[in-house]
Every structure is written in structure tokens, then in C-alpha cells.
From TrEMBL:
Organism, scientific name: Rubroshorea leprosula
Name of one Pfam family that matches: WD40
Compositional bias (Basic and acidic residues): 1252-1273
PROSITE patterns hit by this protein: WD_REPEATS_2
UniProt feature, compositional bias: Polar residues: 1274-1289
Location of region: Disordered: 1196-1323
WD repeat windows: 259-303
Protein name according to UniProt: Transducin/WD40 repeat-like superfamily protein
Protein's UniProt keywords contain Secreted: no
Keyword Ribonucleoprotein: no
SMART domains associated with the record: WD40
Keyword set, alphabetical order: WD repeat
Low complexity compositional bias, start-end: 1202-1231
Length: 1323
């Protein structure tokens, strides 16, 4: 239940302590007057100061500041050099402190039945006064120190400026007028209260005549009439009331009321808020008593002695749902925090916790006992209690996840009045709440804009709420901690008292009890009115350990007893499922779920039942002491919550390895069988009503998953310490101890979803076919598939899941101006509400922009964070367009969702994308892109296209996603400025000739635009081709081809894609203009392909030749009988010769050339140069380059006539067959061989070119004699080169090296002419 949140060890005892309401800051003063500010969340000391004496660092800093500002050092002693004396009080002061002080006073006064109306309505916060600065205020005996924690500048106010009286206490006065400067009141040693202005640093008022001795404590509060009051307690035992509502003057004010409170002096005073009643004052005195006073009649309600023979020195008002009857915390000089139960009735004092069991054991010396000297409860997070001790600062956390005992009920359709049921004491009550005087929730009313547009800043309740509490006649059997929950139909409400343990089910219509019994845990099904309970026997009460017996044996005995009791209780507990029928009866569906032997520690309801099991763990002596202490309290408002809370016992921290223990199992409500494997245990679960989404909460994050068409993990959301959440379609509203968050969720479309959907459709079809066969026989399977079936199948585009978090409310006050600016100069002395500083006027008008037609437009993306209600909250959900919350005081609060940035998102998440687009006109157009991206993530690309302010780039993407290619093309033409480019004109008229210069400039801009969006043009062409929208593809092709015709405009891959698409669309004219650009980029294959589509052989050869692909050019020329064959072969052989000689093609410097020349073989004479012949690689059947090239036809005679090949140059010629050395090859080779198409040239050249390169140098080096033989007889080598059988069209002719040809040349040298004749005959 109670665990250590933070600890900081100190050498001195801590005697003064204060906590900041919104930041994790703690300021303390120790016995030696050292003041330190500690960030307890990050465990860092922010600032340290020696306040009692003279702090040398501050003194030096103040002198340097004055020198930097040009001031001469004064003759007198600086205030920083004055000794402060003993520290009497420390506190923070900024806009947050001021706001929450006023909120506490007003909300406490509004609980009174006689409260005036303006207190119950929404109130405006005070005007920002500290302008983003955070003051640390230290009240010392001789001076007051004001230190700005932002700029680290300070100001000391000596007691000489406050009538030279010692300062003993202080309090900040709440002023609501915008012109008022911050005021701080100091209680003096002479019984006079002096008020100091923090703007002029002058004394502005005195309160005199109230006390005869010194003043020990000051506090402001508000009466139920709305009057601001100041109460002071003095050493004379008097409690004096003063009016704090006067204007800024220097008159001496007399007290309103004075009464005797304590004998021996009043030590402290505290304000206590009472549900449904006027606030109360709590005072503690030197007479060791605690008194409670009514603030209407100012009569004493109760006086008690909390701890016998010991005086209380700190008191705090407390209201925690885990301990509903404990309202006051106090401490004396021992190791306990004491709690007072029912202060005005039984007033039983019980130890809340023993701090010595929380701190590390090595901190406390063996012969030293822990003592508490001061204590404060966090004003906004009641589960945090900070204490100052003789060993350090202890921040303890008291069950942060427990929620108020309240459950919202279903609202009847058409009704604007909502209701919730709650438990107070032993009474069941009904809370009715609704919006009152609601303005039209449109932005035509500026009041529903963000709070920044208002005069008085943000307000805690942005909307007026009317609420009524009614009593229900049905009694409640217990007054301890209770948990309320409602069934899915809203007909039944369950109340569980886990400390008793007991549960009751009430029927909402007449509040009759339907079912009851012994159970610690209860969980509802979200689909039907059935629930699971954990039945358990009553645990045996353990004797409390006496205060003095802290021996090791006693603690070990308590640990053993606690373990035995927990084991006995767990052994008798089982999970049982019951169902509530329509007639109101309860029936048991399943006696016991699960076969695991571990005890159950948690039940989580939802579409599936979650059961958490306890892992084996030893209970430490300290935890056992706390368990036995609390269990021994008879119905004290809290008991052993260990079996209920989701961590094992709630007393000790979990280790990280233990937190990830997989001990959570999901079960089906229908079959009661396990679903899936074990998971890490969540702190709570939230399931969507439509069973589409679920959220599992862990300590640092939320895990969100989709459930349909099958379970799929979507992602984690980093929202730590979440206490509860409610689904609203695709919106998850989450409450944490400090914020309210909204998570927008969409599962997107994953491939597994499409597969699952297809499988389900196939299963449906098979089931339908099976039914048809059963009814009508096999003839029922005969179907006729029409063409419309394939057309109706649309492509389902994949979409990633989307999770977006928006913070709706928090405690912090947004700083209005940067902290380095000074306070604004005021033009009026007397503050009235009509005064508005110039800065606020400008801010108001800057936040609101008026669009066309007088519609107010919000210029911010999201609204400013609203103020979160204090303490643990129950989220009711969204009703009437606002988010309803209920706090621990059973008050309903409404958070506005009317800002268009939130409203549009909520509507889109709810499924009404059309209304979201309509609301978007109230949002600044600069935020439409952000909203469109959100709608795209939600799956509303088509609707997002109607947003008026989206950029053209995003409009193009949305149009492509929604398959509106016409609009996408229009956006693309506008973005690329190419609307007038690529038009098919008939010719130039006179005006066109005169405007050529302007057209040329437009053309350059258009080409640049097209090049910038070339990828988008290709995408839209492909999308248009896929959907048979040829006109759109043609328009895009025109523009892209225009840019492609400009040399160097498009990159290689873009030109390649353009060429293929032009060929696909038959745009031959534009394709011809593209070939030269392809050649210039070295894309020989694409250029040759384009030329082949155009049917231009010369252009094809040029493409290959200019890009260095000579092998393809030679093969093509030979296959088609081109006259350029000889030139191509010569060029190819020259290129190969260069590669063989290793001559660098690029220019090299002189050093590289010299080093290369050393490596080359030297020739001693010119006669040796002939030993290095040129290597010729020729097509099959071609003679040497020195001879004339002869091309033979099929039926030509065996004579080689070079003139015949030149008579018909354009006729495609046949490829010659290879010489056959085997007789078996003559039969298949008689078949006719078709001419090789141009597209087959590249593969063959790729295979032949590298092989010839590799073989050529080897042949010249290893066998120079054979190389000489080849050089002297080129004709024979050319005519006898082997080639594969050309009857196989897919065969690639291998490259044959001269080494393998040499023996064949020696053997068949004399048969050259015979082979040529045979070849002619075979062809």
C-alpha cells in the first residue's frame, strides 16, 4: 500500500519542508539553516543556500551583477551581507502556486450548501503576475530572501524595511484583480502582520491589534460567502480572522474575529475541504491538542489529542480514495505518520505507516532512531507525502492507482442530464450533472476558443457545470475502501469491498440487491451481463506487534505468520463466473477457471477475462510488519490490499526483472479456456465497446492492440503511471496523476488483415456452396462468372497503424511571456476587472483570427492545456461534446473539446469524416496539412482532399491514395508549372513568333519543374495504366517527354523509365527525340531498344557504337547485312587492341606514365615489333580485314563475290552456318536460320566480349609462334573459326581463343576452299 518514492540522506535534521504543486521540486531547511531545492523525480539538487548566515556565493554574485549594470557599490552594507538568522519558513511562489492556492480556497468554499452561485461556477485564474519566473521565498528571522530559480537573481528584504521586527511566518495573499501586484504577508514578533508588495518591494499594509504575542502561522481561505479571509495563530493561543479583500492601501486593519484556540500558542493551521459541507479549519497547539473549527459559525467542532503526551508539529488535510475515512495526517517526533479517522466523530488515531521500514537500513545508525520533524502532503497529488526526518527527506507514495468509489451510469437517449452512483460512508448516492447555460459550441463564440484568448487566462472548469447530489434509500453494508463498476448494459452496478472481503450487485432501476457474497475481486464482461469474482475466505486477524518490540525475532515471526495467512487465504480462493439474466437472477456459469496452482492476485474484465497469478516471492520483515499492522485495524478504512492491488502486496517495490514476469492469462468468457500464452501482468486493461481495440497499461507505457479481423499489436504509447482510461471509438482518453491525454488510434491495413479477410470470404463461399449442395444437389455449383466480378475487386492499399497523443489537461500554467522579460508597467493604481494590460490585449487578438463570413478561426494547432482537476479521477467519457471527469470529492468536471484542432480529430476518429471537414473551416489553414495527414492515417484520404488549406504536394499524395488521378494530374501540372507544355500545336502564328523569348523562359521553368517531379510523373503514368485511364497517362507522358528531349535534364533511370513508357504507349514521335539523350547518358541498350521500336537500324547501330557496345553493333550489322559492318569490326578490334596493350584511355600525369612505361616490355629493334601482332576477332564466316568482305545468300553459288552484297543493302541477310567437322551435324544444320533480332544482340555480345578479352593476352604471351602463324595466315583463321549449331536459337556462340584454333589450322590448311564450298551447299 505504501512504498518509498524518493529518499535523500542529509547530515542535519530537516525541520522545514514545502512542495511545489506542479513541478517535482521540494524545498527544505535543516537545523543549521541550510536551504536546498531538490528535484525528487530526477534525484538532483537544483539549488543550495546558506540562509542563516552570509552566503559568500550570493554576495559575490550580487556585486558582479551591480558592476555589470554600471552601479557603484553603495556605502552601506549590502543586504546579501546581512545574517539571515534562523529560517522560519520556506515556500515557492509563481503563477502555479498562486492559481492552485486560489483554486483550493474557492473549491472548498463551494462545497458549502450556502455557497453563493459564483463560487460553484467556473472561475478565472488570477492574471499572470510572475511572468514565468519561479520564486523561492525564504522567511528568515532578520530578512526575507526572494530568489528567482530561472535567472538565479535574488532580492533580500531586511527587517528594517518591515518596521525592524523579526519575521516568523509568511503567506501569499490571493488577489483577483488584473492590476494587483503579488503580495506577501509576514507575521512579526510584535503581533503585527505586515504586507509587502513584490513589485515595489515596499510595505503596503499592516494588520494590527489582533495578537499580544508573536505570530506563529498564517493562512488564507475563502468563506462560503465568497469573502477572502486571512487567519493567524499566535503564541498567545489566539486564532484571529482578518479580511483580505481590501484594496491597495496602507491603512492599519483591525481583526474581524478573535477566539481562544489553544493554551500555550497555536503552532500551525490548515484548511480542510468537506464533501457537501462548509470548509473546516484544523489547528494544532503547544498544549498537544488538535482542534477542528467550523468556518461559518467558527465554533469548535472537536478537540482531540492525537498521540498521548506528544505535541503535533505538522498537520495536513488529506483525502485519499484508498482510505476514505482518514481525513487528517499529523506527525510527532517519532517514526510514524499518524492518520485520524472520522475526525469529527470517533476521531481514532492510527499509524498510517512506519517510515523506518521504508528507508534503506544502512541509513539509520544502529543506536539511532528515526524521528519525523515536519510533514507535508502534496496539494495536487494526495498519494504523495513528504516528510523531513533526522536522517533525510522521505517521499512516500500511498497506492497511486486507487480511484474514487464512483461509477458513471448510462444516459437515456435524448437526455442531456448524466448521472453517476457513488459511495460515501455507508450511503449510496446519485450524482446528476449536466452543462448549464452552454453557449453554442461553435467558434462563432470566442469563449469556446482556446483559453489564451480570454482576458483572465485559463480556468479550471472551462464550462459551467450544474450538478445535484441525491440520496439513495438502499444502505451500504460497509464504509471501508470500495470499488464500483457497471455492467455493459448499464443495468447493474457492482460494489466490491476488497478489505472485508465482500461484494454486492445492485439493479439500477430500483437499487435492489441482486447478488452478494464474499469476494475480493470482480470483473465484468464487456459484451454480456456476466462477471467473474475471486471468492475467498476471511483471512485470520494477526496480532499487532507492540511499538517497542522491534526485535529481529518478532519481525521474522510476523513474516512467517503473514506468509502462512496469505497461503491459507489463496488456497481457498478460486475464480468463479456468474451471469445475470433478464429477470434479475444470478446464475453460476463456471465454478472454477484455470488449473494453475498459484494464487490469483488480479482480475481484469473485457472481451476476454484476464487473470493474474502471484509469483513466488518472500515477504520481507518490514512488509510483514506493515501487513500485520494494517490488518489488525478493525474496519479502519483500509486493510490488507495486497490481494487486490495488481502488484503483490503494495508495500515494497518490484524489481525490474520481476515486473516483466509473465503471470497474466486471458480466458474466453464462452468456453472458459485459455486464449494465447502468458503475458506480463498489466496494471489495468481497457477494451473498446465495439471489441475492435484494447489497451494494456504498464508502469511506463500503454500497449495498444487491434482485435479485428485478428489480434495484432499496434504499438506502445509512452504515458507513464496511467491510472485509468476509457475508449470512445478510436479515441482512448487516459488519466495519469498529473495529466489527461487523448490517444487517437487506427489499426491501418496490414497484409495479414487482407489475407484474413480473404480467408473469411472463402470460408463464407464454401459454407454457402455446402448449403446449396445440401439443398439442391451438385447442380447448384454451376455458376457463370461475369466480367463484373473482376472489375469489382479493388486494390486494397496497405496503411501503417497510427497512434497520435494529444495532451488535453495538466496542472501546469503555461508561461505567458519569456521569463527574462520584466513585469509590465501598470497604468492604474486601483485594480478593477476592466483593466487589461496592453500585452494581454495583443495576446488576445493574436490568438483569434477572423476568417471569411465572420467565422472565428483558431490559429493554434491544438488548444492550450486546460487545468486538470486535483487528485485521482474517474473518466466518464465524451458526452455532449465534452469530456466528463469526476474527482475524489464527487464533483463533475467538463473538459472542452470544442477547439477545431481537437474537434476535427474526434469527429474523424468517431467515423464522421464529412463533419470533420466542415469543422476544419474554423481551423487556421496553415494547420490543414497536419489535419489531412491525420485523416490519411485514419483512412479518409478522399475526405481529406476537401480540406481547403492543404498544400498541392499533399493534395497530390491524397489524390493518388484515393485514386483520383485527374486531380492528381492537375496538382502535378500546377506544382511543376507545366500546364502549357507538351501541347500538340499545328504551327506557329505571328504572335507565337513575337513571344518566343517569353515562351523560352516559361519552357525553362517548366522543364525544371518537370525534372523536380519526374518520379511523381512516372507514378501517375503507372497508376493511370493500371486503371486504364489512357488520357491521363498521355497527358503526363507529354510533359515528361518534353523534359526528356532536353539534353541532361533527366537522370538515367528516369530516362529509361520514360523510354519504356513511351514505347508502351506507341508515342514514336516523342520516342525518337529521346534516343540521342539516352545515347549521351550511355544507355545504349535503352537507346537501341527505342530505335528498334522505331524501326531505324542506323539509329540502333549508332546507339551501340556511341556507347561503346561494339560487339552488339557488329553482330547486328552482320545479321542484317549492313554496309557499315567493316567499319564497325575495325573499330571493335581497335578497342580490343587497346585493352590488350593496357594503354590507359584516360589522361594520366607524367609520374604515372613513367611508372607504366617501366612495366611494359621493351623492344630492342624495330624488327621485333612484328612479334606483337594485332588480334582480330571476326564474326563467323567473315574473312580478314585485309580482304574484301563477302556476304553470301542462301542459294548463291560457291564463289565469293563482294559486289553481290552491295546490290541489295537493305534486304536482311542470313547468318552463315558454321563449318561442320562432324558428319552427324549436317542433317540438322540444313534447316533455315532466321535472322537474329536486335534485342538478342546484347546477351550474345556480353558473353563473347569478356571471353575474348581474357584469352587474347594469354595467346600472345604463351605461344608467340602460333600467334605469328595466325598473323601470317589471317584468311585461314577467319574462315575456319568454330561456331555452335545455329539451329538452336537460344544457344550463345562461345568465344574461341586462337590457342585452340592453331592445331585445327595446321591440319586443315589445305582444305579451306572445300569447306567454304560445303558451307554454301549446306545453307
Amino acid at each position: 500500500m505504501l512504498r518509498l518514492r524518493a529518499f535523500r540522506a542529509t547530515n542535519e535534521k530537516v525541520v522545514k519542508i514545502a512542495v511545489h504543486p506542479t513541478h517535482p521540486w521540494l524545498v527544505t531547511a535543516d537545523a543549521s539553516d541550510h536551504v536546498s531545492v531538490w528535484n525528487w523525480e530526477h534525484r538532483q539538487v537544483i539549488y543550495e543556500l546558506k540562509a542563516g548566515g552570509v552566503d559568500e556565493r550570493r554576495l559575490v554574485g550580487a556585486k558582479l551583477e551591480k558592476l555589470a549594470e554600471g552601479e557603484h557599490e553603495p556605502k552601506g552594507k549590502p543586504t546579501e551581507a546581512m545574517r539571515g538568522g534562523s529560517v522560519k519558513q520556506v515556500n515557492f511562489f509563481d503563477d502555479d502556486v498562486r492559481f492552485w492556492q486560489l483554486w483550493r480556497n474557492r473549491s472548498a468554499a463551494a462545497e458549502s450548501p450556502s455557497a453563493v452561485n459564483h463560487l460553484t461556477s467556473a472561475f478565472a485564474s488570477p492574471a499572470p503576475s510572475t511572468k514565468g519566473r519561479h520564486f523561492l521565498v525564504i522567511c528568515c528571522e532578520n530578512k526575507a530572501i526572494f530568489l528567482d530559480l530561472v535567472t538565479m537573481r535574488g532580492r533580500d528584504v531586511p527587517k528594517q524595511e518591515l518596521d525592524n521586527r523579526s519575521l516568523l511566518c509568511m503567506e501569499f495573499l490571493s488577489r483577483s484583480a488584473a492590476s494587483d501586484s503579488p503580495l506577501v504577508a509576514f507575521g512579526g514578533s510584535d503581533g503585527v502582520i505586515r504586507v509587502l508588495s513584490m513589485m515595489t518591494w515596499k510595505l503596503v499594509r499592516r494588520y494590527t491589534g489582533g495578537h499580544k504575542g508573536s505570530i506563529n502561522c498564517l493562512m488564507t481561505f475563502m468563506a462560503s460567502s465568497g469573502e477572502a479571509l486571512l487567519v493567524s495563530g499566535g503564541s498567545d493561543g489566539l486564532l484571529v480572522l482578518w479580511s483580505a479583500d481590501h484594496g491597495q492601501d496602507s491603512r492599519e486593519l483591525v481583526p474581524k474575529l478573535s477566539l481562544k484556540a489553544h493554551d500555550g500558542g497555536v503552532l500551525a493551521v490548515e484548511l480542510s475541504r468537506v464533501i457537501g459541507g462548509a470548509p473546516q479549519l484544523i489547528t494544532i497547539g503547544a498544549d498537544k491538542t488538535l482542534a477542528i473549527w467550523d468556518t461559518i459559525s467558527f465554533k469548535e467542532l472537536r478537540r482531540i489529542k492525537p498521540v498521548p503526551r506528544q505535541a503535533c508539529h505538522s498537520v495536513a488535510s488529506w483525502c485519499h480514495p484508498r482510505a476514505p475515512n482518514l481525513n487528517i495526517l499529523t506527525c510527532v517526533k517519532d517514526s510514524f505518520i499518524w492518520a485520524i479517522e472520522h475526525p469529527t466523530y470517533s476521531a481514532l488515531t492510527r499509524p498510517l505507516c512506519d517510515l523506518s521500514s521504508l528507508v534503506p537500513p544502512q541509513v539509520v545508525a544502529p543506536n539511532k532512531k528515526l524521528r519525523v520533524y515536519c510533514m507535508v502532503a502534496h496539494p495536487l497529488q494526495p498519494h504523495l507525502v513528504a516528510t523531513g526526518t533526522n536522517v533525510g527527506i522521505i517521499i512516500s507514495e500511498f497506492d497511486a492507482r486507487s480511484l474514487p468509489p464512483i461509477s458513471p451510469l448510462a444516459t437515456p437517449p435524448g437526455s442531456r442530464e448524466h448521472s453517476a452512483v457513488y459511495v460515501v460512508g455507508r450511503e449510496l448516492k446519485l450524482l446528476s450533472f449536466q452543462l448549464s447555460n452552454t453557449p453554442n459550441p461553435s467558434l462563432g463564440n470566442n469563449a469556446s476558443l482556446s483559453e489564451a484568448g480570454r482576458l483572465k487566462g485559463d480556468s479550471i472548469e472551462t464550462l459551467h457545470v450544474k450538478q445535484i447530489r441525491k440520496h439513495i434509500s438502499t444502505p451500504v453494508p460497509h464504509d471501508s475502501y470500495s470499488i464500483l463498476s457497471v455492467s455493459c448494459s448499464g443495468k447493474y452496478v457492482a460494489i466490491v469491498w476488497p478489505d472485508i472481503p465482500y461484494f454486492s450487485i445492485y439493479k439500477v432501476s430500483d437499487w435492489s440487491i441482486v447478488d452478494s457474497g464474499s469476494a475480493r475481486l470482480l470483473a465484468w464482461d464487456t459484451c454480456r451481463d456476466r462477471f467473474a469474482i475471486l471468492e475467498s475466505a476471511l483471512p485470520p486477524r494477526m496480532p499487532i506487534i507492540p511499538k517497542g518490540s522491534s526485535s529481529k525475532k518478532a519481525k521474522e515471526a510476523a513474516a512467517a505468520a503473514a506468509q502462512a495467512a496469505a497461503a491459507a487465504t489463496a488456497a481457498s480462493a478460486n475464480v468463479q463466473v456468474r451471469i445475470l439474466l433478464d429477470d434479475g437472477t444470478s446464475n453460476i456459469l463456471m465454478r472454477s477457471i484455470g488449473s494453475r496452482s498459484e494464487p490469483v492476485i488480479g482480475l481484469h474484465g473485457g472481451a476476454l477475462l484476464g487473470v493474474a497469478y502471484r509469483t513466488s516471492r518472500r515477504i520481507g520483515p518490514g512488509a510483514a510488519t506493515a501487513i500485520s499492522t494494517i490488518q489488525s485495524m478493525p474496519l479502519s478504512g483500509f486493510g490488507s490490499s495486497g490481494s487486490f492491488s495488481t502488484f503483490d502486496d503494495g508495500f515494497s517495490q518490484r524489481s525490474p526483472s520481476e515486473a516483466a514476469t509473465q503471470n497474466f492469462q486471458l480466458f474466453s468468457w464462452e468456453t472458459f479456456e485459455p486464449v494465447g500464452g502468458l503475458l506480463p501482468q498489466p496494471e489495468w486493461t481497457a477494451w473498446d465497446q465495439t471489441v475492435e481495440y484494447c489497451a494494456f497499461a504498464y508502469q511506463q507505457y500503454l500497449v495498444i492492440s487491434s482485435l479485428r479481423p485478428q489480434y495484432r499489436y499496434l504499438g506502445d504509447v509512452a504515458i507513464p503511471y496511467a491510472t485509468g482510461a476509457v475508449w470512445q471509438r478510436r479515441q482512448l482518453f487516459v488519466a495519469t496523476p498529473t495529466t489527461i491525454e487523448c490517444v487517437f488510434v487506427d489499426a491501418g491495413v496490414a497484409p495479414i488483415d487482407i489475407e484474413t479477410r480473404k480467408m473469411k470470404e472463402e470460408m463464407k463461399i464454401k459454407e454457402a456452396q455446402a448449403r446449396a449442395v445440401a439443398e439442391h444437389g451438385e447442380l447448384a455449383l454451376i455458376t457463370v462468372d461475369g466480367p463484373q466480378n473482376t472489375a469489382s475487386q479493388e486494390r486494397t492499399s496497405l496503411r501503417p497503424p497510427m497512434l497520435q497523443v494529444v495532451r488535453l489537461a495538466s496542472f501546469q500554467h503555461a508561461p505567458s511571456v519569456p521569463p527574462f522579460l520584466s513585469l509590465p508597467k501598470q497604468s492604474k493604481v486601483d485594480g478593477d476587472d476592466s483593466f487589461m494590460p496592453k500585452e494581454m490585449e495583443e495576446r488576445k487578438y493574436n490568438e483569434i483570427a477572423v476568417g471569411g463570413g465572420g467565422v472565428s478561426v483558431a490559429v493554434t494547432r491544438f488548444p492550450n492545456e486546460q487545468k486538470r482537476p486535483v487528485g485521482p479521477l474517474i473518466i466518464v467519457g465524451v458526452r455532449d461534446g465534452v469530456l466528463w471527469l469526476i474527482d475524489r470529492y464527487m464533483c463533475a468536471h467538463a473538459l472542452s473539446l470544442s477547439h477545431p484542432g481537437i474537434r476535427c480529430r474526434c469527429l474523424a476518429a468517431y467515423g464522421d469524416a464529412v463533419s470533420a471537414v466542415k469543422w476544419a473551416i474554423r481551423l487556421g489553414r496553415e494547420h490543414h496539412d497536419d489535419l489531412a495527414q491525420f485523416m490519411l492515417g485514419m483512412g479518409y484520404a478522399t475526405e481529406a482532399l476537401h480540406l481547403p488549406g492543404i498544400s498541392k504536394r499533399l493534395e497530390f499524395d491524397l489524390a493518388m491514395k484515393s485514386n483520383d488521378l485527374k486531380r492528381a494530374l492537375q496538382c502535378l501540372l500546377m506544382m511543376s508549372n507545366s500546364r502549357d507544355i507538351g501541347q500538340d500545336g499545328t504551327g506557329l502564328d505571328l504572335n507565337d513568333i513575337l513571344n518566343l523569348t517569353a515562351k523560352k523562359e516559361n519552357m525553362v521553368e517548366a522543364v525544371q519543374g518537370i525534372v523536380k517531379y519526374a518520379k511523381e510523373f512516372l507514378d501517375i503514368i503507372d497508376a493511370a495504366d493500371a486503371t486504364a485511364q489512357a488520357d491521363i497517362a498521355r497527358e503526363a507522358l507529354k510533359r515528361l517527354a518534353t523534359a526528356g528531349s532536353v539534353k541532361g535534364a533527366l537522370e538515367g533511370n528516369e530516362l529509361r523509365g520514360l523510354a519504356l513508357r513511351l514505347a508502351n504507349h506507341g508515342e514514336l514521335t516523342r520516342l525518337s527525340g529521346l534516343v540521342n539523350n539516352l545515347i549521351s547518358l550511355g544507355l545504349g541498350r535503352e537507346a537501341a531498344f527505342a530505335a528498334a521500336v522505331l524501326g531505324d537500324n542506323a539509329l540502333m547501330e549508332k546507339a551501340w557504337q556511341d556507347t561503346g557496345m561494339l560487339a552488339e553493333a557488329v553482330l547486328h550489322a552482320h545479321a542484317h547485312g549492313r554496309p557499315t559492318l567493316k567499319n564497325l569490326v575495325e573499330a571493335w578490334n581497335k578497342m580490343l587492341q587497346k585493352e590488350v596493350e593496357n594503354t590507359p584511355s584516360a589522361k594520366t600525369d607524367a609520374t604515372a606514365a613513367f611508372l607504366a612505361s617501366l612495366e611494359e616490355p621493351k623492344f630492342t629493334s624495330l624488327s621485333e615489333a612484328g612479334k606483337k601482332p594485332a588480334i582480330e576477332i571476326l564474326p563467323p564466316g567473315m574473312s580478314a580485314l585485309s580482304a574484301s568482305i563477302t556476304i553470301q545468300k542462301k542459294n548463291a553459288p560457291a564463289t565469293l563475290n563482294s559486289q553481290q552484297s552491295q546490290q541489295q543493302p537493305n534486304k536482311p541477310l542470313a547468318l552463315e552456318a558454321p563449318p561442320s567437322t562432324e558428319p552427324a551435324a549436317t542433317t540438322p544444320s540444313t534447316e533455315q536460320v532466321p535472322s537474329a533480332p536486335p534485342s538478342s544482340a546484347p546477351p550474345s555480345s556480353e558473353a563473347s566480349e569478356p571471353a575474348s578479352d581474357d584469352k587474347a593476352p594469354n595467346s600472345s604471351e604463351k605461344n608467340p609462334d602460333k600467334a605469328d602463324l595466325e598473323g601470317s595466315k589471317p584468311e585461314t583463321t577467319a574462315s575456319n573459326t568454330e561456331a555452335p549449331d545455329t539451329t538452336q536459337p537460344d544457344a550463345v556462340p562461345p568465344a574461341v581463343s586462337p590457342e585452340t584454333e592453331a592445331p585445327q589450322n595446321d591440319n586443315e590448311e589445305t582444305n579451306t576452299t572445300n569447306n567454304v564450298a560445303k558451307n554454301d551447299l549446306l545453307i
